[in-house]
Write a structure and sequence with these properties.
Blueprint (H helix, E strand, L loop, with lengths): L1 H27 L3 E11 L1 E17 L3 E3 L7 E4 L6 E2 L4 E5 L2 H25 L4 H118 L21 H26 L8 H30 L9 H36 L1 H84 L4 H24 L4 E3 L4 E6 L15 E4 L3 E9 H4 L7 E6 L7 E4 L2 E9 L2 E11 L10 E18 L4 E2 L4 E7 L2 E12 L3 E6 L6 E11 L5 E5 L2 E4 L11
Helix pairs in contact: 2-8, 3-4, 3-5, 3-6, 3-7, 4-5, 5-6
Length: 698
Amino acid sequence: MKKFLSIKKIIYFLIIISIGYSIYSYYFNTKSKTTTVTKEYSVGTGSIENAIKVTGQAALVDEQKLKFNQVWKVTKVYFRDGAKVKKDQLIAELDKEDINNTIRQAELSLNDAQIKLEDLLNWAEYKDILNAENNTTVAENKILTLQNDLTNLLADKDNKLKDYDNQIEQKNLAIKNNLSDIKNKELQLTNLKNELTTLEITEEKWLTDYSVDLTKTISDAYTNAKKQIIDIENSIFDADEILWITDENKNKNDSYEMYLWAKNSNTKTQAENNWREANSLFLSSKTSYNSLNITSQTPEEITIFLNKLLDSYDKLIDLGKSGQEMMNASITSSSFSQSDIDSKSTTFSSMTTSAQTTYNTIKSTITNIEKLTDPEVKKAQSTNTINSKKQSISDTEIALDKLKNTTSIQLQNDLDKLYSDREYSANNYSSQIKQKNLDITSAVNSLEYAKESLKVVQNWATAVELAQARNNVAKQKLSLVNAQKNLDKYELTAPFDGTIRKIDFKVGDNLTADEQKFIYIENPNLVEISATLDQLDIVKISLNQSAKIIFDSYPNKEFIWTVSEKDSTPVSTSGVTSYTITITLDKWDAEIYSSMTAKVNILVESKKDILVIPASYIEETPKSKYVLVKEKWQEIKKEIKTWITNDTDIEIIKWLNIGDIILKKITSAIKSGSSGLIPWGRTGWTSWSSSNTSWGFR
């Protein structure tokens, strides 16, 4: 019993110690721990827009100055400054009393002339003279029409028969050519059969020689690569002696460093960047070369190495070009002559030429290896070539049969029909020509009758008297028309819907020839936004390209319009070249004035209904991009391919689907007790620990 009590006391003692330690650890131990929260995002579709953002300036357009073309007194002004007018609405007018009197006088003179003409014509019925004159004119016109018809018929007959003769000649030639085609097709068939026999022998021999060609191509590529690596290493060293990038060469150009790239320091930066990239790619390709088996290499191994070497020479070409640009930006001095500049420029020029030649050689070698890599492909190609040749023989046999039967018969039938159609057409034209000559004879008789009838009705008045009376009527009509036209000079009307900005004169003013007084009218809704873009952005802009405009005066209002003008004339400011674009828009009821500024976003790239995810969910390595994907409560790294992006989102083009759940881990630090226990709760002791993974929600 005592032993049992001793054990019980020991148990109570251990429990008390555990409780005390836990309380101490919770409240006093502040050791920092980290916790990671995982956010989820469900992949879906969306839109991405990229825009060029510039600042533009507004200018009101379509203003016009109106001026009277007549010197006289202003009698009426129908509008005030600031008034709105409609197109063709009368704005102001001069005193019209004199011009109206002139018009009235012209009307009276015309009336007198018409009365006098009617009096002369009263000797005969005016309608009779008109009818007689009209009948004569109609008869003359009918003869002219019939004669033109006859001329056209004769020409049509001649052209039609010549056309039939040409068709007959062409058809005879076609028959002759068909016979020649039959002979050629027979010869072609013989040649195709001979070519098939030769092709089968050649393809069989090629498959035998294939393995030898592949081995030799790989061996030659490996041998040539050693010299190509030495060449690029020498070129990089030569460039370093000029650029002094490495420690070995950094002090070699102290005497002329300040004169290098003096005109444009950016050329030096570009050349140095190209040198470093070329050197890095060279070292990678050299390492790849050293890893190859000396005695034998697989097509895959040699291709991987050659592609790396190709990248090295590609960047070496860029280095040579940027080096030339850097030397062109240099200036001469007593210690750095033009010949020194030319010598170094020649170094870079030779580097570019040599690198380009080697680049093309390596590219050709890679292509040859790829062609020789898969003999089964070549064997399939060989089979296809032979089958194609057999198909050509079959097609030629069918074509030959068609030429001998179908085509020959059809050509002869066409020729017989042409002869028949020509005979029918000749007879038909002869009948029409005969009838047209009869119609002309009848029309000549009708004209003679009409002329005699006209002489009868004209005997009451002489031709001179009637002509003078008619001329007088025409003269008075012309005077009236001219007077009415002058009336327009006494009025000013609106050329378009707009607002009158200013009127220089008032009612009662006498306008003189040496005064310049106008009515200024403008279209208040039409605004031009001008903005300047640099040479990198201007090439992305085209006419009618969509743009969003937000004026500083209206930060919450967005105008959607398009580019209306693109000026290709360059403007240089402080060495920076820029170009001007114009957006013409209707401002509607907004109060926008000249010289107001606006933010202009010109849309250059837009996609809708594409796979889009937040860019923050993507992790990158030097060679790839990937995301964490949740699949059956597991985290899987999945490589992705992306395309366009904006400030927040990015387009996914491969290896993600709608509905996929992607994850983003957010790690933060917390303070916790080291025991992993929290104080006693209503349900007893509760265990807690930091977790590296917990599922969250978007």
